[in-house]
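Please check this chain.
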Amino acid sequence: MLIPVLLCGGVGSRLWPVSRELYPKQFLPLLGADSLLVQTCQRTQCLPDAAPPIIVCNEEHRFLVAEQLRQAEAGDADIVLEPVGRNTAPAVAIAALTALARDPQAILLVLPADHIIQDTDAFAAAVAQGMPAASAGRLVTFGIVPSQPETGYGYIRRGAALAEPGVYAIEQFVEKPDLSTAERYVQSGEYWWNSGMFLLGAQTYIEQLEQFAPAILAAARSALTEASHDLDFVRLDKAAFGASPADSIDYAVMEHTRAGAVVPVDCGWSDVGAWSSLWDVDSKDIQGNACIGDVLLQDVADSYVRSDSRLVAAVGVDNLVIVETADAVLVADKARVQDVKHIVAKLKRAGRNEATVHTRAYRPWGSYESLVTAGRFQVKRIIVNPGQQLSLQMHHHRAEHWIVVSGTAKVTCGEREVLLTEDQSTYIPLGTRHRLSNPGVIPLELIEVQTGSYLGEDDIVRFQDVYGRDTPAQ
């Protein structure tokens, strides 16, 4: 059985301000209409005999993952929640143990959920090419045939051809090189980009961990043994998983094993590690500009310009990245976009929310977006998905006014319950138990006006919640 394993724990700080800690790049439609996670999931559905995937993700993202899997029609997936990040080796250990409970002969296709692959046929062919080697006990990784010297990727130096056609031994893993070294690698034809994608037997991986990283395996086993089930999620034990060493598959296993192998593939791959990577793969105008959203350019060349919420105009510049969101604008030299992560670090040190959250926050029931905040009032746009509801709650410091823009709202306010439709409104007094739900078949959109002495999201006391949340951040 081929079981895709989607690793969904990345932060994507180099794609700030669009990618942020609580809504990172794997959940964003950066190239096309679907998010990178949905695209990755759909890619695995095209593989012959692929089983429902195993998703390993940050517990704070669990409802985002569940909703996007629903969009991808992958409702039978196992969603495993990491209480803390421990890199890829422990995450794949959890997936391997989970897969073995399904099938002792399971083969895992391990894929980061935030990569782009434009040629899905070439990708599927490479997976098929690697299957005999994986079934025979090889730990197969995929080497991307380089299109240019690239200093942002690690490389794999191929060794001798193995018995399985199109499969090679791994001579060496090498770190990200400088430009002259990368040029030499590409000219030699012996080096491929390290994709971070793997095809390996679940039992084989467990055996290799037992040999080379037994502490990781012991922590994974303990975390699963002590795991709890929360709705449709498997919640790993925090103390057990937190005790695991943090390490990648490459460092923990692949650089030590003699069972490693590599399959070359040319599939239009990108790890979307920086804005320049998106410029590489996106369509461009005759001046070499990739433009997304409401953008006007004059005498601009070889630039990436993205607008999420308003008009962005540029004149007389070259080789820039300009990215606009509702609360932040990034302007960077295209050759320096790897350093965007330093801006994120500065924001975190300053305690600024722009590092972690958007003006639009996503919840299991839908989303809300802050439109205006000033003094003792705040205006929000709230969208509740069909059939969903907020918790039964109250606030100590604020009252709320709700005006329905579209759809139907079912409102509980104290002992009273009413249905509201377009252009109707209601008032929720301070200290009153209340709940908002959408009984309809289309999204409910409303405007909320909050007034009071304190308007923070932590002024919520929950009495009932169908999503099992006990804090506002969830």
Summary: The chain has a mean pLDDT of 94. The radius of gyration is 24 Å. Residues 412 and 435 are 5 Å apart (CA to CA).
